[in-house]
Amino acid sequence: MTGVGCIDNISDEKIVQYLAKKAIKRVTKAAKNESNDSNPFVWKKKIEQEVTHGVPLDTFSVKAEKMKRKERMIEFEKLRKRREERAIEKRKHDEEMELLARERARAEHDQWEQKL
After folding, report:
1. Is the Cβ–Cβ distance between 26 and 62 less than 8 Å?
2. Which of 12, 58, 62, 116 could form a disulfide with 30 if both were Cys (CB 3.0 to 4.6 A apart)?
């Protein structure tokens, strides 16, 4: 039963299921770099839903997954640097506040000594 007759029997739903299955397979291949090689986590339902909404299959390729991972790592680095910068700023601010408190205490002590 090869030929044009077979193509007519394929429904849109079957095509979407096939595309979703193919996308899941691609993502699973991309997930092989994870620590849990025997059972990598894949958002199967999410992928199926996105494929049914018409998201192109190229977004689920190994290359696309690597790019997403790289972008996430860059974002994590930015967040880490910003967190370090905030910690440094906080330390400087705390040191300045401590210095001001010492100066106030010294000034109060000097005024107290002058009154005696």
Report:
1. yes
2. 62
Amino acid in position 63: K
Structure tokens at 91: 């330390």
**Alpha-carbon gap, residue 81 to 71, rounded angstroms:** 15
Spans of the chain, pLDDT less than 50: 1
Residue 69 burial (CB count, 10 A): 13
Distances from the Cα of 50 to the Cαs of 20, 21, 54, in angstroms?
8, 12, 6
22-42: pLDDT as tens digits: 887 777 776 666 555 566 667
pTM given for the model: 0.47
Using the CB atoms, write b or e for 79-107: b if 16+ within 10 Å: eeeeeeeeeeeeeeeeeeeeeeeeeeeee
Task: Sketch the domain layout of the chain as residue ranges.
Answer: 9-60, 63-116
For 4-61, where are the alpha helices, taking DSSP H only? 4-8, 12-30, 44-52
Q: Other CB atoms closer than 10 Å to residue 29's CB: what's the count?
A: 15
